[in-house]
Amino acid sequence: MNSNVPVKTILILAANPKGTKPLRLDEEVREIEERLRGSKYRDRFVVEQRWAVRPQDIQQALLDCKPQIVHFSGHGGGEKGLVLENEAGDYQLASAGALAGLFELFAESVECVLLNACYSEVQAKAIAHHIGAVIGMNQKINDRASIAFARSFYNALGAGENVEFAYKLGCNAMELGGDLQHLIPALVRREEVQRNPQHIFISYKRDVDPDSKVALQLFEALSRDSEVFIDQTMLVGTRWAERIEAEINRTDALIVLLSARSVQSEMMQVEVELAARLAKARQGRPLILPVRLDYRDPLPYPLSEYLNAINWAMWEGEADTPQLIAELQQAVREGTLAPEAQTELPDSSESAAFPYPFAAAQPLSLEMPEGTMTPESAFSVERPADAVALKTIERQGVTLTIKGPRQMGKSSLLNRIKDAALKAGKQVAFLDFQLFDRAALLDADCFFRQFCDWLTDELEVEDKVEDLRSCSNLDKPSRAEV
Predict the structure, then answer these.
(1) Which of its termini does the chain have fewer beta carbons within 10 Å around, N or C?
(2) Cβ count near 212 (within 10 Å)
(3) How confident is the prediction along the chain (482 residues), in pLDDT tens digits per residue?
């Protein structure tokens, strides 16, 4: 061995927790070792392995091994994080922000990170702020393709090639093997991440305070490091609807300013819906960052469907602005708002937008007369057809169809029908076809799988969709989201 050539350590981290789909991780590691062992420059590499890794195991392995290349093999969950194990062997998620912070500490020694897991491009982009080259997967990838990529990647390194060549050879091996997944691996370089600023879109209610004031403050602060779009930057004559859609299509993060007025805005609902559709198709991009502007009530539908499951930040006055800016800067950089940014809100079952008209010693506070109304709304007026619908839903084996022009109260009536059904002791499953992927609406097989997945989740029954799939290529083990 030439003593002048430094030996590089490859640290392989593997995790396949209980309750997740079994993967052929042992075969992948065996292929990596065999390719390096039989390579021209085999003496230049040392392979270290850590199995069933927990978060603390990764820290310890980085401290002990001081690796130049880190290879993770296992499951990925997109924005949710990489799937590690906990003390009981069950899965535990490691967020993009936490992983980026960890690799920042080892940036002087680590040269390359390979995340061989589904939907791991989110973590790759976060880690690439600190590491020269990071490879992640932008979609679901099956075992055969991921092993083929790893085999050729390390074959190239063992032959003395650089990371970019090894990455391209790995993609080519997938294509030659007929897996049709060669576009899934994504190479992210540190200089590219640093050179290309993040694009941010601020969604808010214009000409309303504090919404406009906070939006402008965020625009000024975030524009120092990122490219920020706010509707006030559009020139006269711009086709605004097309421009809004184009900006959301290219944005990395959508900041949504939620106030008592803005949550009723149809424009905001359209912007959030478009961003949510894109994020679902692109595994988490754009990142959606809700900010509550002194607003603690439950979100109205359909915003609740898109935003209830997402961490949010709270702004209650001017004193909170600097902290809000810092939280959003960190979220854009690391991929999520910190959980501690949340403040407990009243449960929707115990809080309405306003009290009943006859509540003792309470002034009546009405919501803005726009958007979907809650079943208890003081603006709600029962029409003869409404009474028929509310009575009919109590019966067994009936089908109700609600038809009418825009702004006639169809969604509000639907909310009241759901409430009446629950009071009648029925179980309610609410499915909004607007939330389906566009691709699913064009493919019956894909649509019915998503439909059944969603329905079983709503009804809290055992999901047997995977067991009933008959198409062989859908039965391949994959490094899919947990």
Answers:
(1) N
(2) 16
(3) 555 778 999 999 999 999 899 999 999 999 999 999 999 999 999 999 999 999 999 999 999 999 999 999 999 988 778 999 999 999 899 988 889 889 999 999 999 999 999 989 889 988 998 999 999 998 889 999 999 999 999 999 999 999 999 999 999 999 998 767 788 999 999 988 766 668 999 999 988 899 999 999 999 888 877 889 998 766 666 677 888 888 998 898 999 999 999 998 988 999 999 999 888 877 678 999 999 999 999 999 889 989 988 889 999 999 999 999 999 988 887 766 655 445 444 443 333 332 323 233 333 444 444 556 666 565 666 777 778 888 888 888 888 888 877 667 777 788 788 888 888 888 888 777 766 666 677 777 778 877 887 777 777 777 776 666 544 444 445 665 45
**What is the distance between the alpha carbons of residues 22 and 352, in angstroms, rounded to a whole number?**
46
Nearest to 140 by CA among 118, 116, 124: 118
- Alpha carbons 274 and 257: distance in angstroms, whole number: 16
Handedness of CA 429, 434, 439, 443 (dihedral sign): positive
What does the block give as tokens for 440?
Answer: 């699913």
Q: Tokens in use for 388?
A: 């028929």
Order of strands, edge to edge, in the sheet holding 199-203? Answer: 227-229, 199-203, 253-258, 287-293, 313-315
pTM of full prediction above 0.90: no
How far apart, in whole angstroms, are the C-alpha atoms of residue 186 and residue 327? Answer: 28
| Residue owning tokens 């809000």 | 324
Rounded to whole angstroms, the Cα distance separating 274 from 272 reads: 5
For residues 257 and 217, is the Cβ–Cβ distance under 8 A?
Answer: no
- Going by the DSSP 8-state scheme, the letter that residue 375 receives in this structure is T
CA distance 389 to 386: 5
Pairing of strands 253-258, 287-293: parallel
Closest by Cα among 168, 192, 191, 172 to 180: 172
Fill in the DSSP letter of residue 431. Answer: -
What the chain holds in terms of domains, given with CATH numbers, is: 8-194 (3.40.50.1460), 197-341 (3.40.50.450), 433-474 (no CATH)
Q: What's the number of CA atoms in the CB half-sphere (13 Å) around residue 450?
A: 18
What phi, psi does 97 have (nearest 5°)? -65, -45
Residue 63 contacts residue 106 (beta carbons within 8 Å): no
